[in-house]
Amino acid sequence: MARLAGYLQSPSLADQYADAKLALAQWEAYRTKAHHQYIWEVWVNGLAMGKDLCPVDAGTGMKMGFCKVPQSQWILLHPDAALRFSNSATKSSELKPALLVEILGRYSWNWKAVNGSPSAEMESRMGYSLAATYTSTNNEKAWGFGPMVHLGDYSFALTKARGGGRWSVVVNIPLADKVFARKQEYVDALQKVKKEGLADLLIK
User: Fold this and answer.
1) Which residues are within 8 A (CB) of 111 and not within 5 positions of it... i.e. 6 or more apart?
2) Which one of 3, 24, 35, 119 has the lowest number of neighbouring Cβ atoms within 10 Å?
3) Which of 170-188 are b and which e, b meaning 16 or more Cβ less than 10 Å from the residue's Cβ?
4) Alpha carbon distance 142, 24 (integer Å)
């Protein structure tokens, strides 16, 4: 009982608890804040977790403890809904829908340091992939291919169909909403100038 009481009061137990709590929070961030994964991507990324993340006993080959949370992931055959950008659109609902498939890519991040120690907050989230998009317009119905970039919650791709097809800028829904929210701010400001008059605004 004395040995048990000493173990329970040991500072190392508190450190182990803090490490386990941090790992749990980082796994939750990996699940919710990293690039969304389909079941086949979960399988591939699980295979990619080597001994540096999942250490094993040198003698028995058995895993030792829990795996560490990775700071990157593979993107493989990842379908998603996207929007084809158009300069003539005045709101995001006027963008043309497009089917997007990320063929192969990579997504990574860092754990933000708080008071010199790692936390469960992700920063510098970014990634890239080779994307394929299917668009249907009056001029063409074809697959286009090109690079895709991820910056935080926003993603965009620049794709072109074979045989002289047009270049297309395809954005994800959060980026479309962000762009057109800012665009609406500018439109409202210009309407205010037109309504009140430039001279009145200058006097103010």
Assistant:
1) 26, 71, 118, 119, 120, 121, 122, 123
2) 3
3) bbbbebbbebbeeeeeeee
4) 44
CB-based contacts of 196: which residues, under 8 Å, 6+ apart?
Answer: none
Token reading at 76: 């493989």
The DSSP output letter for 14 is: H
Q: How far apart are CA 54 and CA 42, in angstroms?
A: 16
Q: What is the DSSP letter of 108?
A: E
Query: CA torsion sign, 8 to 10 to 16 to 21?
Result: positive
Q: Which residue has the tokens 């173990």?
A: 7
pLDDT single digits (tens) 68-94 = 899 999 999 999 988 887 655 566 666
Q: Which of 67-76, 114-123, 144-153 has the lowest mean pLDDT?
A: 114-123
Residue whose tokens read 């040995």: 3
Q: Report residue 119 as tokens.
A: 């936390």
Residue 191 parent element (H or E): helix 173-196
Residue 18 parent element (H or E) = helix 11-32
Q: Which residues contact 171 (CB under 8 A, 6 or more apart)?
A: 82, 83, 85, 95, 154, 155, 156, 157, 179
